[in-house]
Design a protein that fits this description.
CATH topology of the largest domain: Homing Intron 3 (I-Ppo) Encoded Endonuclease, Chain A
Number of helices: 12
Distance between the termini: 59 Å
Radius of gyration: 24 Å
Structural class: mainly alpha
Shape: globular
Number of strands: 7
Number of domains: 3
Helix content: 40-55%
Order of helices and strands: HEEEEEHEEHHHHHHHHHH
Amino acid sequence: MENEAKYEVTAMCELPEKATKIRGSYFPGESYDFERTPDKLSLFVEMLKARGCYISEDGHIRSKKGGLMSKLARNGYWQTIAQYNKKCYYFCEHRVVWVWYNGAIPDGKEINHIDYNRSNNHIENLEVVSHSENMQHSRPNFNPPRGEKSGNAKISDKEAKVIKTLGMICGWSNKQISTLIGDKMASSSIGRIVSGQRYPHIEAGEIMEVYPTIVDFTRNKNVGLTEELKDYSLGLAGEAGEVCDLIKKMLYHGQDVSPVEIALELGDVLYYLCAICNVLGIDFYEIYLNNNAKIMARYPNGFSHADSNNRIEDLSPL
């Protein structure tokens, strides 16, 4: 009997640690030169205004349809994000708000939060000061490094947020959380984080906010990025097929398919989608942002067949 041929699947190329992120503007007729303009922030604000963005009552920048254009960064400041010409531009939201109302920030000056709260970006809470004035204002409220910045932390602030969310919002026991995150932390330490004795500056969040970090706990990182990407891509296709199969059985086979069954399969789709993002270093939030920009430009007045058949991204090169 002849020996069976053995085939070894090998990667065609090595994956970078973080894949290049492809983005575009999706807003036709825009012409900005961020690369040559000294005051890029003023140009950034001009672009936001032209797109119909506005500052909401909570002090945050929002899109024409109300979508949040800013996200909370790890350092406590909010960052406003917008795409143009295949690039994503980030500016501290409090600086954006100041320029929105007052024009360019004078050279050598900084924007200070009067109430020390970096999340309070209402224009009434902002003032223009020198660097030394900013430091002098902040000194009475200086806090020593906490959490992952303390030097002795076993887990990151993101992981601590997962622990608090699972314990406080989802009702998980300390033992369940400890099992999920592996040998990083004992159940007793988990309890101190959930109660606020440790990482007191970290708050519980929405489950979708911490979901990418939860997925990271369960990824098989020992096989390498290339094998992970193969696994998750095939898994995504397979689970999407499961969703389609359930709907087919419901529509054409007369079977009773409960929404719960479909929801469970959609959950698997979400898992693999998020895992692929984690492997490639793509922020889940940026997927929402990119898709939101595309939908806003494609259907400015809601869905219509005319807009669907004459898509802006097909008519205007990025």
